Every structure is written in C-alpha cells, then in structure tokens.
Amino acid sequence: MRFEGKGAIVTGGAGGIGKATAQLLASEGARVLLVDRDRDALAKAAAEVSGEVHAFDADVTDDRSVRDYVERALALFGTVDILFNNAGIEGPVADVTEYPVADFDKVIAVNVRGVFLGLHHALPVMVRQGSGAIVNTGSVASARGLPGSIAYNAAKHAVLGMTRAAAAELGGTGVRVNAVLPGMIDTRMLRTLVTTMADGDTDAGLTAAAAAAPMNRTGSPLEVAAVVAFLASQDASFVNGAGYPVDGGALAVMPNGR
Fold this sequence. Notes:
By secondary structure, this protein is an alpha/beta fold. The protein has 2 domains: about 5-185 and about 220-245, NAD(P)-binding Rossmann-like Domain (Rossmann fold); about 185-220, no CATH class. The chain contains 9 helices and 7 strands, in the order E-H-E-H-E-H-E-H-E-H-E-H-H-H-E-H. The protein has helices spanning about 15-25, 40-50, 65-75, 100-130, 150-170, 190-195, 200-210, 220-230, 250-255, and strands spanning about 5-10, 30-35, 55, 80-85, 130-135, 175-180, 245. The protein has a 7-stranded parallel β-sheet, sandwiched between helices. Strand 4, helix 4 (about 100-130) and strand 5 form a beta-alpha-beta unit. Helix 1 (about 15-25) crosses helix 8 (about 220-230), helix 3 (about 65-75) packs parallel to helix 4 (about 100-130) and helix 6 (about 190-195) crosses helix 7. It is globular, with a radius of gyration of 17 Å.
C-alpha cells in the first residue's frame, strides 16, 4: 500500500494506460481523480476502477479547466501528491509536406500545452506541501524520429524537455518530475496508427509493431502503469528528471527514422 491516503490525478483517464494506472494506484491505497474530455468514456472508466475514484470532465488544453481539476483534487483529497500527466493524442499519419496544419496545432495543443498546464498548476500545490511526484507521458518518439508523425514526434520530444526543465528547477523542494517513454503498447492509439500504416490490416500492423522490440511483442497498459507507480512512489525517491523507456528494448536497437 505505497499510496495509502495519497491524492492522485490521472489525465487521459479514459484511455488504456490512464485507466490501468488509476487502477494500480487505487489498489495501493491512492484516492484518484480521473480526468478526461470524453464524458461517456470517462464515466465508464471511473465505474470500472475499484477503490476511491472520482471523475472530472476537463479539456487539458484549457488553462481554466486544468486549474479546476487541480483545485477539485485538492478539495477532495486535501493534497495533490501524484499527477500522472498522461493525456495525449496521436494525430494523422502523413509526411511533413502533407501534414495538415490544423492537425499539427491540435496535437501540439494537447500533447505539449496540456502537459505544460498540468505542471503549471500542480507544481505550486506540491511545492507548498514540500512533496509530490509528477510523471509525464512521453514516448519512444521522445528519443527517435518516427516517419509520418511530425507533430507527435515534436510533442513527445517537448514532453521530455519539459520533464528535465521542471526537475532542474525543483531540486530541493521535495517534488520530483519524471517521464515514462512507452513503446508499442496495445492501446486504442497504437491500433489506430498501425491499422493506418498497414493499409487497414490491424493484425499485420500489430505484428510489425511487435517486431520493433527485441522482446518481439507489444506491451500492455499495466506494464506502463507499473513503471508510473514506481516513479510516483518513494521507491524512486532519488529518481528525478528521468525518461524511463517501457518499450521491450526497442530504443536499444531502433535506428533513428525507423
């Protein structure tokens, strides 16, 4: 029960990794606020997670919405001990020259501005408390160039940069900021991407995705959640500013641009 009585926020809580992390945190005693903009999916996820779980409908790109979800967690729990800054979207698959400008702006808004706003509003609360842990969701795209994903690549590089900048600023405050870098995790997002890239053949796309890792399989959301929980816990008390791959070894062998 590493998180007994702790107050946790999970953004992107209706997605596979968000819901799995919420369940793991709650199973170890955390009181969890699930945040997502999809009301129906959010309500379903909150109902499926056992433990003390509250749902909050918010747009992570909106300054007021993010301030509101942090204030709601503080009102519910009295502290904000953990923020899993996880909400993100993939955008279309297209070459740089063909990438729609509106989609680029949307991906950057959710994946960069959304993470920034979470940091911006949660960190003052944690600094006042003298404790707290934030885990941002990056990607193997934080460390490699993935063709057809210019906006997603740019955003996930930015997430790792923001993680390092925040960690550098917060030394000595009792607050830590780290990131997870998931690889090919079997989620709705991955299935959408690989189906597009494999001309509609999801199974072929998943097989190709699995081959990117030496372990020759895709990962599960729970395997990411386990690393998030570690980084949020006192087990990682001297881990700060790190980007932890959860990728089956993909980054160990993946050349840039493949």
